[in-house]
Design a protein that fits this description.
The longest helix has 14 residues, at 115-128. This protein has a single domain, classed as Purple Acid Phosphatase, chain A, domain 2 (4-Layer Sandwich), CATH 3.60.21.10. It has helices spanning 4-10, 15-18, 36-44, 56-61, 93-98, 115-128, 140-143, 182-193, 215-226, and strands spanning 23-32, 64-69, 103-105, 132-134, 147-151, 154-162, 198-204, 231-235, 243-246, 249-252, 257-259, 271-279, 282-294, 297-300. The protein contains nine helices and 14 strands. The N and C termini lie close together (6 Å). With 308 residues, the chain is α/β, with parallel strands linked by helices. Strands 1, 2, 3, 4, 11, 12, 13 and 14 form an eight-stranded mixed beta sheet that branches. It has a six-stranded mixed beta sheet with strand order 5-6-7-8-10-9, covered by helices on one side.
């Protein structure tokens, strides 16, 4: 792995464009929840993109940007609810657009908070605005099929899975939401590898507020890399967990929150943004950037490097 030298070279004007193979810089954000106090704060400021204002430049400058969308969009309210039911107003999509988010995971325990129709409404709204969703789809087959995004001739494939989709509110299982299990993981990665150069897996799993991954997270994340994934990105604990270089891949067990209203969390418990650099198909460097969330809006703090 290259370190600071590589990053310094990337700053030279025109260097990346002139290099063969191409350089791609990917950014990964944590949980994005756009209802409840996040929505109310944006309304008060008359700016639906307010939560993303201080980080939008960094995300939009990346070649590929990804977050976990923790709140489905809903055609009708309520949009502000103190309970653990998240329904986002369609206007709140403006923040994702401002930040240039390319792909979102919609496979999580809140995927059904806007009801069965909310799953499809969210997909349609994202699609109309040029944002790809992974982990939920109109059919079960599509939900497990993943999406592929090409950048500079390199095809990046995304898969997303959730450990839980019922969240204590549903007795049944919606087959349009990809569930995390070994068979789905192996077969999904094997199939996606035929269509892309780099496989990235998002996992919504673990224990909330735990600063260490549990056995399921560790087993599934390493299985993903063993099966051919280069990057595993974890969500759900709401606090950052360790980054693990594993074989030829990297595992971000939990990025914590990106946009949320959990004001009780201390600054060092809130979240990180993962950055990964590729030369062609090869991952050559990664690091994390700390963020602090103030009044639902994240901003960068000095980075902590985590590399080989």
């Amino acid at each position: 792995m290259f370190g600071p030298l590589l990053l310094a070279l990337l700053l030279v004007q025109g260097w990346a464009e002139a290099t063969d193979p191409p350089v791609n810089r990917l950014l990964f954000g944590g949980d994005v929840m756009l209802s409840r106090t996040v929505y109310r704060t944006a309304q008060q400021r008359q700016d639906p993109a307010y939560p993303f204002r201080k980080i939008a430049g960094a995300f939009s400058a990346a070649d590929l940007a990804f977050v976990n969308l923790e709140s489905p969009f809903a055609a009708t309210g309520p949009y502000f609810d103190l309970r653990m039911v998240f329904r986002a107003h369609p206007s709140m999509l403006e923040g994702l657009k401002l930040a240039g988010i390319d792909v979102v995971s919609t496979a999580n325990n809140h995927a059904r908070d806007a009801g069965s129709q909310g799953v499809e409404f969210t997909l349609e709204l994202l699609e109309r605005n040029g944002i790809q969703a992974v982990g939920t789809a109109r059919t079960p087959e599509e939900a497990y099929g993943g999406v592929v995004v090409e950048r500079k001739g390199i095809r990046f494939g995304f898969l997303a899975y959730t450990e839980d989709q019922r969240n204590g509110n549903h007795a049944d299982t919606d087959p349009r939401i990809a569930m995390l299990d070994e068979t789905a993981l192996r077969t999904g990665i094997e199939s996606l590898r035929r269509r892309c150069d780099v496989v990235i897996v998002s996992m919504h799993a673990g224990w909330e507020y735990s600063k260490k991954p549990n056995r399921l997270q560790t087993r599934m994340a390493r299985l993903a890399v063993d099966s051919g994934a280069s990057i595993v990105v974890g969500h759900h604990p709401h606090v950052p967990q360790p980054v693990e270089p594993y074989k030829k891949g990297v595992i971000f067990y939990s990025l914590g929150n990106l946009v949320f209203d959990q004001e009780h969390l201390k600054a060092d418990e809130q979240g990180v943004i993962g950055e990964v650099i590729f030369f062609g198909r090869a991952m050559v460097d990664f690091q994390v950037h700390r963020i602090q969330i103030n009044h639902t809006a994240p901003e960068f703090l000095p980075a902590i490097r985590a590399r080989r």
